[in-house]
Amino acid sequence: MNFRTARQTSTSQTSTRPASTPHRSAGRRAALRYTGLGTAAVLALALSACSAEDGSAGADSDAVSGDITLLTPIYEGAAGQRLLEDELLPQFYEQYPDVTVTVDYTNFARLNEKLTTGVVSGLVPDVMMMGVGWVEAFADKGVLANLSESGISVADLEKSTTPEIVQAGVWEGDVYGVPIMLDARFGVARMDLLREAGYDAPPSTWAELVEMAEALTVRSENGALERAGFDVLSLDARQMYETMLFSSGGSLFNDDNTAPAFNSAEGVEALESVVDLIHTSKVEDTGYSSTKETVNPLINGRAAMGIAHNNLWTQTLEAAPELLPELEPFLIPGDAPGMFVGGTLATMSKGSEHPAAAQALLEFLASPGPALAANEQRGNIPALTELLDSEYAQGNRLVQFSMENLDVAKREGGPSEWLGLRGEIAPAIESALLAQKTPKQALDDLADVFAGKMGG
Amino acid sequence: MSTTRMHPATPGTPPTATPKPRTKRRRPWKGRLLLNVILSLGAFTMVIPFLWMIATSLKSPAELAQFPPTLLPQVWQWSNYSEALQAAPFHLYFRNSFLISAGHTIITLVLGSMAGYALARIPFRGREWVFMGFVAMLMIPTYTKIVPQFLLVKFMPLFGGNDIFGQGGTGWLNTWWALIIPGGLSATAIFLFRQFYLSLPRELEEAARLDGLNEFRIYAQIYTPLIKPALATVALLTFQESWNNFLWPLLVTTRDDLRVIQVGLAVFQQLDSTSWHYLMAGTTLATVPMVVLFLFCQKYFIQGFTHAGIK
Predict the structure, then answer these.
(1) Residue A322 gets which letter from DSSP?
(2) Domains in chain B, please, with CATH?
């Protein structure tokens, strides 16, 4: 089947939706009109065109039936639940009336436990949403269905999604997950504060960033930090470092994901740059901010620049909408332009008793309309490049910026052991930030831990 | 404490010594003042997070973003509560949490006290080994028990479509059984009950036996009424632990109508952002049952903690 064709064609269709959706924004209404029943109809045609020899996934809508389960860390809360159950699934049911979907809501913090207990007990949900870096582990364990065998190829996905993003759902050359939404980390500047200091644009080189950050740092007479020139502490230390690593041209692992590579010269330089910001340039003090802050310091002016998540936009929209025009995103300047990207992918159980129904749901949720609606509900970045033109993406500067720069985005993950490795990164980075170890020592020690766990 | 004993005067004879007035020894006022200041500081420190939670629950996102933060809300956003309650079916979650917590508490009080009584007062071969087994269970981290417990629930014979060997169905998953039975009794509760029963005098038991009471009546009518502080303590701790449980109800259920209050609160905490005003409003409401329960039980609760030495 042609997965891309199914999704692209669907955009020209219209939808019938429940009338009682007052909470929905105009953008989402447009998003849902964007696809609607047509999506499902064309998906059905696409599915019927599939030539799966066992007939499991390739079937027309009449042959697609069964009770299936969906495990999802997105669509949570009443708003997400209304979107999924009152708007999206009714569209799906209109095309597949013989399919029933039972939704199991969780959150990312507990998704691993839900999946693990499901796997060990043999109760794997038919369709599962999981994060970037997760597919490798569950594909390697034989939990996930190989979607390439049912007609979803890497080449087809790459026609509508950036190759680096597509690779997040690929294991050993085959597709196991289809991206739905992304989230990115990049530099953000408060332009009103920059203008006060005499700057009219974000930094374009690292030296410029350091100089500007020093100039923008404000301390009281007794030396207490009142405004950080460049905030690196509000983001999870792992994600902050990976943003720096990717911007310096480094990688987490070698090309075949068999050994760590972050302790390369580029990786060490990236961490040294952050450590120097704190201990040499003194643009931020350790303890000044953290991931548990009630509000990002860029919003209340406690930082002039920083590395931030794209949801800074929705936070600012809620807390200080007048500042939205002042948020200017930029790629962290380094040897190579880079941006950290995570996300959510739809996967399918290898042991599903109703593979055709499961695949139909997976493709429906990953198609433009439903994917756009889900992204808008969470303030995230659509994985489909064609959605850059959507009203939602054009109305959210940070989402728009992220989508425009997906070609330089890099993701985490790679080896199947990633889920057991990633928790080791933040403590190592923090040991360097606290000057307990030199950046090289911290990364070398971390590489040893990685090598040990990867069997190297 | 040094008090002067008053010798009653013999009628008709004068007292041989002038009795000193009875005095009550009091701490020096400076010492009392210092003690009260320290205790007040301690109490204030304890109550600050609670006050912060309530204040945050009444602030707007714009006010939460202010720096320096405001102590009290500039505009009291009572609507945070109604809006938070609309974010998830909290009435259902409250009901479920209450039923589960009450179920756990009843099971613990009935079966836990029986087990504690048996370990404390009924001599049988291997009793110390059984007790050591319970003590050992206290050392097992909760996380390591999750998967085995989940498998036990999933493969429960003759439930949820399972055959006699526990195959073919879903066992107790997605049922009240899974929510109530596995967490119904804890080694901690049995340990506490044993300690309380041990502290009671053996003479009561002997007198009861002479009066012809059987073992169950000695347990139910003689000893258990004497350990009300223990009952209150264990009940409160059990109810609190069940009320705050998040992971287990999330794992063993997929239906929204079986989810609990802590799962509801989690919707305000996404991976990379938290709606603090709603989270604090929801948390404030979630703490109300615990506070009410403590107010009713505090007399016994404090006695129980003091007695068990688990301050």
Answers:
(1) G
(2) 29-77 (no CATH), 84-308 (1.10.3720.10)
The domain that holds A149 is classified in CATH as: 3.40.190.10
Phi, psi of A373 (to 5 degrees): -60, -40
Both tokens of residue B256?
């929204």
ipTM here: 0.76
Q: Is B155 exposed, middle or buried (0-12, 13-18, 19+ CB in 10 A)?
A: buried
A69 interfaces chain B, CB cutoff of 8 Å:
yes
Q: What pLDDT digit, counting tens, does each position of B136-157 carry?
A: 998 988 888 888 999 999 999 9
Residues A24 and A142 both lie in one domain: yes
Chain B residue numbers with beta carbons less than 8 Å from the beta carbon of A318 are 61
Kindly report the pTM of this predicted structure. Answer: 0.81
Segment A189-220, tens digit of pLDDT = 999 999 999 999 999 999 999 999 999 999 99
Pair (A360, A275) in one structural domain: no
The answer to whether the Cβ–Cβ distance between A302 and B61 falls below 8 Å is: no
Residues A355 and A315 in one domain: no
DSSP A58-89: ---GGG--EEEEEEESSS-HHHHHHIIIIIIH
Domain interval for residue A336: 184-340+416-453
Enumerate the residues of chain A whose CB falls inside 8 A of the CB of residue B86.
78
A428 and A405 within one domain: no
Number of domains in chain A: 2
CB of B45 within 8 Å of a chain A CB? The answer is: no
What rounded mean pLDDT belongs to chain A?
87
Chain A CA closest to residue B68:
A300
| Ranges under pLDDT 50 in chain B | 1-15, 309-311
Chain B residues with beta carbon closer than 8 angstroms to that of A76: 266-267, 270
Inter-chain residue contact A183 with B256, CB threshold 8 Å: no
Contact A301 B67 (CB under 8 A): yes
